[in-house]
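User: I've been trying to design a sequence by hand for this structure and keep getting stuck. Would you show me what you'd pick, starting by listing the structure so we're on the same page?

Assistant: Good idea, let's start from the same input. This is the structure you sent:
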């Protein structure tokens, strides 16, 4: 009986510390949530996957030149129930990213659709490439 409990405890600890997504603050040894950030001529676009999060559970803020993405996911387990296995992460996360200087902070837009958060921020006019016609 004691051996079974110890083996179960070891399994839970292994899950907590080694499985990506077991803890929403940790994704392997990388920051969570992982992001893709790409640049167009007129804007920067950042995407991140947030499966299971509702719009009201995610907050996007800008302070100075720092973009902060925070969120919270509940366990979804009613009180009085116990886990046999817990591999899905829940709790809170916070991810901070430094914005480039050429970004117009007032133009930032965010949307969450099908578990993908998309954040778009326009470049300042002086940072865009201007095509010059040769006379």
């Amino acid at each position: 009986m004691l051996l079974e409990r110890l083996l179960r405890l070891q399994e839970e600890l292994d899950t907590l510390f080694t499985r990506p997504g077991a803890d929403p603050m940790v994704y392997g040894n990388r920051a969570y949530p992982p992001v893709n950030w790409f640049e167009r001529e007129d804007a920067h676009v950042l995407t991140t996957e947030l499966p299971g999060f509702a719009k009201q559970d995610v907050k996007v803020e800008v302070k100075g030149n720092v973009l902060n993405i925070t969120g919270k996911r509940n366990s979804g387990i009613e009180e009085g129930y116990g886990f046999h296995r817990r591999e899905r992460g829940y709790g809170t996360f916070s991810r901070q990213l430094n914005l480039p200087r050429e970004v117009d902070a007032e133009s930032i837009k965010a949307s969450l659709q099908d578990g993908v958060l998309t954040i778009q921020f326009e470049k300042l006019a002086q940072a865009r490439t201007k095509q010059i016609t040769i006379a």
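That's my pick for every position. To get oriented when you compare it with your attempt: The mean pLDDT is 79. The helical segments are 2-18.
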